[in-house]
Every structure is written in C-alpha cells, then in structure tokens.
Amino acid sequence: MGSSQSLGVSSYYSSREGEENDFSDSKDREEDIAKFPYVEFTGRDSITCPSCQGTGCIPTEQVNELVALIPYHDQRLKPQRTKLHVLVSVLLCLLVSGLVVFFLFPHSVLVDDNGIKVVTVWFDDKNSLVILAITASLRIRNSNFYAVTVTSLASQVQYMNTVVGTEQINSVTRIKPLSEQLVNFTVKAEMGGPSSSIYFFCTLPKIRVHNMVIFMRTSVKISYIGHITQSSLEMHHYVDCGSNFTDAHADPWSAPIPPPTEVVSQRKNNVS
Fold first, then answer.
1. Is 258 within the bounds of a domain?
2. Which one of 14, 58, 239, 261 counts the least CB within 10 Å of its CB?
3. pTM over 0.70, yes/no
4. Based on the domain organization, do 95 and 148 belong to the same domain?
C-alpha cells in the first residue's frame, strides 16, 4: 500500500514537471518566433506583398499612399435600400429643378393705359400755335418673383395723322416683385400754324368745350434677368385744347412742364 501511494505521488510530480516544461518550451518558441524575420509563403497563385518588402510592416512615409483592401463579403460593400435612396435623390432633384424654373422663369409684365391726367394749354398768338403739355399715366404690373426695371419709355402724339410731339425717357423706374406701379410721363405737343384752323377752333370763345382727338403711341422696354421685352400701346384720347384739364385722380407729383419761351401771349382758363 505504501508503495502504491509513493508511485502516485511520483507520477503527479512528474506530470507537473512535464506541464511546466511544455509551458516554458512554448514561451521559448514564441520568443524565437518574435525574433524570426517576417517571411511570406507564396503559392502558385500568390505574390509577395510589394509594400511590406518582406518585413511585415508598412513604411511610415507610405501610410497615406496605400489603399486598404476590404473583403468582398464585407457589409460595407452591400449598402441597404439602394433603390430607395436613388429614387428619393431623383425626386428631390426634380422638385428643386421645378421650384427653380417656377420662380425664375420669366412671367409676363402687363402694361395698361391709365388715361391722361393733366393737360396744360398755351397759345402762341404770333405763330397761331396751340401748345399742349399732356401728362399721361401707365399702369405696369409685375407678376414675377423678382424686380424688373423699366429701362426706357418712348411716346408719340399724333393729330390728323401728323406727329405733333414726341418724348423719350431712359431709366424710368424699378418695380418690386408681385406688385404694380403707376408711371407718369409728359409729352409736349405743338399744333396749328398760319394755314391751320386748329388755333381758331381752340380759341373760339363761343365754344365751351374744345374737344379734339389725339392718337398716342407709347412703347415701353422692360429688363429682367438679362432679358428685354417691349410693350406697345396705341390709344385715342379726347383733350380740350381750349382750357387746362386736371384729372381728379391724378397723382400730386405729376407736374406739367413749364411753358416754352417762344409763347408771346398766354391764356389760361380755370381748371375744369
């Protein structure tokens, strides 16, 4: 019995010594492997890594020049809901494009005749001339989402198919987005002469209302986003060549032009 116990104890110590020897051997092998230089075992279908140069380490100066390889089955190479993302992107692009076209596409700028506001009459008795200072008004409506500029305004007055007065104005005004504005302008017209009956008709005291028909042709140029449009108006108006006329709704700043210096005698009646 004593011999069997001694045998067991000796076998236990021998096994412990064997484990310690194995542990020390494995530790020695790890240290030997750490000291062993890096070697790539290349097969028939593989090549040596050129960037490592057989050392197993990447040079520091090449860190920003090398590209990391990602496995083919990596999830980062398989984004989810690709079709949904593409569809949403296309819809957003179409929406933005539609909004840009809607807000920047040129809309019409309407120019309407707003009538004659003020007519001031002078008489040149020496030359038998009737001189009119006609202040007319235009209503311009801007339906765009940006301001437009009225670059020029040209007006011509005709009586009996004869041009009796013209006016040209540059850099008229600027109209705000989605708004309208009244633009007033004054044209001086001279009618009559020694062989004309207009002077006699306009100065005849027996006639209380000296109405005459004039024809006005007005052209307006409007600029916006590098685009220039032109609107023309042709209207017939009645004016009283025997007395001054002021519209009740005329703007207070619409003042007539001063009388010409060549007028010898000036006759003004009360405002009708």
1. no
2. 261
3. no
4. no
